[in-house]
Design goal:
By secondary structure, this protein is mostly helical. It contains 13 helices and four strands.
């Protein structure tokens, strides 16, 4: 089961830790850190494993050598961008800020499984949908509770089969509007739209799809960005949405990938040009 998320926020005003990375390595260093955030949020969501092999493959994918990437990662750990204690103990990259943003982003999910030993915050006391796995993991001694691990794997298989059998049923007008104007619905998109229909009125979801068509942004990320902006502002009905002052203007639209205007495709392009 993929615990990742499709986008993550990046503050416009970054603290000194990021500026020091950029001062030491140039834009390339900043871009690598952002790519690592993408890897973390997009896969496990709140951490990623970081070994020599992982660094080598990551460096190949971004057009840098594994040694160059590892040097930037070591600097990021030294500056406190990633937690040094968990890296030394488990060879993972994470931080308190990463975890806080991730668990807030998935707070509407039915259930999120996490490893207790990787946590820096007390999520089970804040979020009711978090289930802490009872795994006895000790990387240094390789003392893994195989029986418990097998149970978890079997549970994941059952959940996957259940999800495949029980896809949500969306209102007919939403299905027709989306498939006629955006793309055929996939299981992931079905679940995403169903989540938004549970959080907001059907009219607002229909409005968001129509806005995507109107602005020729025919993709689910753009639709989700519209819905999230209104949801975060407390607007869940069509009347509230239509009554709100419009924040996007033609020629001055923010990127649909996040709420702060950071276009990661452009950032990756710049990084490749620098290397």
């Amino acid at each position: 089961m993929n615990n990742g998320i499709n986008y993550f926020p990046l503050n416009v005003h970054l603290d000194d830790k990021f500026e020091l990375i950029e001062a030491e390595f140039g834009l390339k260093g900043f871009a690598i850190v952002v790519k690592l955030f993408q890897k973390i949020y997009g896969q496990q969501g709140y951490y990623c494993e970081w070994t020599e092999d992982v660094a080598l493959l990551f460096g190949k994918n971004v057009g840098l050598g594994g040694d160059a990437v590892s040097e930037i990662v070591r600097a990021a750990i030294k500056r406190g961008i990633f937690d040094s204690e968990l890296y030394d103990k488990y060879q993972i990259l994470t931080s308190r800020g990463i975890q806080e943003r991730y668990f807030e982003a998935v707070s509407r999910r039915k259930e999120v499984e996490v490893k207790k030993e990787y946590l820096l915050i007390k999520v089970d006391q804040i979020y009711k949908n978090v289930r802490i796995l009872n795994e006895n993991v000790n990387i240094s001694s390789k003392n893994v509770n195989i029986s418990e691990q097998k149970k978890v794997e079997e549970s994941k298989v059952k959940e996957k089969k259940a999800e495949e059998r029980e896809l949500p049923r969306l209102p007919v007008r939403i299905v027709k509007l989306y498939e006629n104007n955006i793309a055929p619905l996939t299981p992931i998109t079905l679940q995403g739209l169903d989540d938004w229909l549970n959080a907001m009125s059907e009219d607002v979801v229909e409005y968001a799809i129509s806005e995507a068509v109107k602005n020729n942004k025919r993709n689910y990320r753009y639709i989700e960005a519209i819905l999230r902006n209104h949801f975060n502002a407390g607007r869940t009905t069509l009347a509230e949405v239509q009554g709100a002052k419009k924040t996007y203007h033609k020629g001055n639209e923010q990127s649909v990938y996040d709420d702060n205007g950071v276009d990661y495709d452009e950032l990756e392009k710049i990084m490749r040009e620098k290397t």
